[in-house]
Amino acid sequence: MSQLILSTLIFSLITAVLIVPLTRRLPKDNVLTFKQILQAFILVFIASWLLYFLMVYFTKIDVQWTIALYAWPVILLLGVLASRGAEQKVKGLLFIASFIGLFYLLIAPIFNAEEKYESAKMEEKVEIEPFDETKTPASVPPQFAENKMKKAFGQVPNTSFYELGNLQIQKVNGKYVYIAPVEFAGFFKWLNGKTTPGYFKMSATDANDNPVFVAKEMVYVPSAFFNKNLERHIRLEYPTLIFYGEPQMEVDDDGTPYYIRSYGEFISARNGFDVKGIVMVDAYSGAMEKIPLEEVPEFIDGAVSPEAVSLQNSYFGKYVHGFWNSVFGKKDVKLPSDEGTEANVSPVFNQDGEMYYFTDFTSPKEGVDSMLGYSLTHARTGKAVYYTGNLEESYMDSQGALDIIEKKFIEKQWHGAMPILYNFYGEASWLAPVLDSNGFLQNYFIVSAANPEISVYGSTPNEALRQYKTALSRGASSVEGSSNAEEKTVAGVVLRVYKERVGDYTLVSFLLNNGQNFVVSSQNEPLSIYLQEGDQVVIRYLETGEIFLPVKALKIEGVVNIGL
């Protein structure tokens, strides 16, 4: 607060000096007495201080000196009109200079496009690492999690005072979960409630998990008012910091809630943004700390706001050859997708448990659904990698994947959500949850980005993956199963068999007498439908490390088979 008061006092002093005619000479040869000048100076000083302070208090805008460039032309114009002689000429020159400064602020996006591109430039690679088939991707869509949390809102004390806040995915105690704070439902609810009672937590990998309400009182939240409002609380302590993106809640491994907000620097002339760190606030006590990115606590997954990542993606895609090329020629221009779950990007976790923001890029040409590449931005450091994909193949973008899902379930009016590109078994593949018209999760859909005719769906991500690997291994794709799985052959006796109908084919799971489990589709091996307990078999399979290993070929003793 003290820094804000000091800053606005300095602005007010400069304003009074620029407006009040210090030489006491007025137009029409009128002359002010010293007492009149002093009174006018004090009046302008107090009025401008109140105006500046209230403007910052209510709008929560920063008070860096460059913000004054928007006000100085008007202030100096008043000073020119109120003075005469040499003072009028000096203020006139300052007015022209301030007008030039304001004009520069307005046209800065034209001239700093190259700086923006350099700030967002990414390392380039071909493909992401193959997904570990033994793990489950965080694939519960936020819309579905939000629906379940709203239905569980009866767990909240004094329910009528509150509403559900924005969801945030993160890792807590090694598990991927959605976190959603309970927020005030309005001004009078805040007056009566004073504090919010806690937050909801739900698994981001298990759609059958039920939301749990965690009782943790919070005082400084985005929906509070006056000095308890989170953004104002931060602004009063750090009036000159540049913030970009909405505050996000993060929970440590003990369940204590914190709010964080990304701060950074303008690229130039109050335009553009380059993230440098976070301000972290204890949601109950209000204690806050300014932390550079390299020192962010380990429990914080999303130090870089999704809005800042989305902005950097637009710089990288649009300004590869400067501003004018982004408007007219559009050579090498690529547009980031708007299909993300948070500010047009989607949070995903890699196999090491680190969070990244995923975005795919497409052509600016209308009617084209081919993907030009995709990026992953580390959510803690802001470092990004751009993946070109296999340049010999044309990959379908996220919108194309959603269109396929919509056509697949057109009669049921189901739609896809949160499409993420993975490297499944060496194949660039889109995974998307499928929701009904009420936002409830129905299944998981996987489609090859390079071969859209290869698509499957299942009730869980792992079931969809099992079907997908059988679809890939049947030979419809150029990919021979997993990119890092060794092909092996084994013989033995079948101990158990389980068969289930999936679409037009049968999925056969069976246990061999050596303890290994296998899965094969009748689409790949038609005669597998005859498999029964006690059969002697020879199997060629992929050693993926999963519980059920994908069969590439199967020979059943006594059954004619062309697979081997």
Shape category: elongated
If helices are DSSP runs of H or I spanning 4 or more residues, what is the number of helices? 12
Radius of gyration: 31 Å
- Strand-residue proportion: 25-35%
Mind describing the biggest β-sheet? 7 strands, mixed
Structural class: alpha+beta
Mean pLDDT: 90
Number of strands: 27
Whole-Å distance between the termini? Answer: 78 Å
Which residue ranges are poorly predicted, with pLDDT under 50 across at least 5 consecutive positions? 475-483
Helix content: 25-40%
Transmembrane segments: 6-24, 36-57, 63-81, 93-111
Keywords: Membrane, Transmembrane, Transmembrane helix
Task: Tell me what the structure shows.
With 564 residues, the chain is α+β, with helices and mostly antiparallel strands. Among the domains are: 103 residues, no CATH class; 76 residues, no CATH class; 79 residues, no CATH class; 71 residues, Nucleic acid-binding proteins (OB fold (Dihydrolipoamide Acetyltransferase, E2P)), CATH 2.40.50.140. Helices cover 28% and strands 30% of the residues. It has twelve helices and 27 strands. Strands 1, 12, 13, 14, 15, 16 and 17 form a seven-stranded mixed sheet that branches. Strand 15 and strand 16 form a beta hairpin. Helix 1 packs across helix 2, helix 3 runs antiparallel to helix 4 and helix 5 crosses helix 9. It is elongated and about 120 Å long. About 2% of the residues have low confidence.
